[in-house]
Amino acid sequence: MNIKEKxxxxxxxxxxxxxxxxxxxxxxxxxVEAVGFFREVSIIDFLTxxxxxxxxxxxxxxxxxxxxGTLLTTFIAIGVALPVGLTxxxxxxxxxxxxxxxxxxxxxxxxxxxxxxxxxxxxxxIVTPFLKLFITDLxxxxxxxxxxxxxIMIIPFVSSLSExxxxxxxxxxxxxxxxxxxxRFQTAFRVMVPAASSGIMVSIILAxxxxxxxxxxxxxxxxQTPVFTFDPTVPIETITAYIVKVSSGDxxxxxxxxxxxxxxxxxxxxxxxxxxxxxxxxxxxxxxxxE
Amino acid sequence: xxxxxxxxxxxxxxxxxxxKLNPNNxxxxxxxxxxxxxxxxxxxxxxxxxxxxxxxxxxxIGPSGCGKSTFLRLFNRMxxxxxxxxxxxxxxxxNKNIYDESxxxxxxxxxxxxxxxxxxPFPKSIYENVAYGLRxxxxxxxxxxxxxxxxxxxxxxxxxxxxxxxxxxALALSGGQxxxxxxxxxxxxxxxxxxxxxxTSALDPxxxxxxxxxxxxxxxxxxxxxxxxxxxxxxxxxxxxAFLYMGNLVEYxxxxxxxxxxxxxxxxxxxxxxFG
Lengths: 291, 276
Fold this sequence. Notes:
The structure holds 2 protein chains of 2 kinds. Chain A has 12 helices and no strands. By secondary structure, chain A is mainly alpha-helical.
């Protein structure tokens, strides 16, 4: 049945090809539309301008307000996810009984499958009012609340991948550390974490890239006010939230205003692409250095 | 010297041995008293009692699974974290029961160093590997640390080979060098006992030879217990040998006597290679 085998092979190859072509297609469209945009707007103004008002009469195309909004929510998210996720990973790997770990790890990963729209209104309806109890001048829309909620969402990225990295450290190193008279805490932080550092870095970068691309939570709870600020208590707008706003609005196709979403999109794409490549590079460069 | 010890060696296993001094007044450094070890239902060590004199080298030999590693790891409580581990009896170091509740395991392990089967340096620099034990003890005096690092590396006969590259990654060293580094790491905190769990089994003959010479040197300052698969090694390096079989201590005594004139048939069979 040689022909049958060949057909199967071709079909499988086609499936792989479709995904690659899709990626190439997306990049192509992004590029073409972005080129159109950059014919109208200088790339320097785009990258250094601090006013983003493409939908107003007085148009400004400085991406920095969107970038600052994105970075602000992202860093708040990482600020939550990194300590919590790493602590969980260390707990699971160094302290928790094996049986407990088997149950807990998949349970934690459930956090990642909650629909982001649920996280979004959770941030808006519950976390923001709660935070207002402590920060009285917190706006209804702000970077802090969605940042924290997004941090909770990406905890499993950090905890799960870091735990994998820690679990890959040979037990002989743990034994060596205990044999020297280290406590569990010293073993975890002076031996295991440094030995797993490349894997932990990768987990952080992937979590970062997930947070940067996250849309729903920030679109719902962070506001739609592009301001160049790092104040977490005021309404802001992220790149993703802006794209949502314009895509669902009534901006006429072919205008510069319409093309801004592609310019914003390609900015987002470039950033996450770079981050993913850095993590890939770290993985290849430093993995299993202790073996 | 060996013969002096021999005359006072406890006979064999099941006999209770009271702490007693040998002719040259060296005290017993390590003592096991009626020790049983269980992993869940499996009994790994069966009522073993044995005394080890200070500044001697004692070899534990026996076929795989006879309990020699388990027995060795009792002396720095490295079995404690194994699931289902349970023990009866006493392990005494300097006449103190180390399984007593008042004993802090971390403190114990600072006095009882360990060298493992596979060289296991940390993925840090050579210097930081040796400094590790001091750092976790909270030593801040960098001059002291540096002195200890160099001294320990010299003591482990590694210093001359790597003196210009203390900042190099420890994992870049050869297997034999790594194992000597691990010995230096153990020495840096000035233990009085060193446990070695088949320290040369992953090394080539030349590297093994260097480690054996080193073990001989270290005897002057430390009490050494070594588990080995290699009977020639036991015969070469140790003063006393304990032969374990299926969790029992079959025979314990002067190494030369064990190897030339064993009292038990089972020992005879093992050392002549008829089983194991």
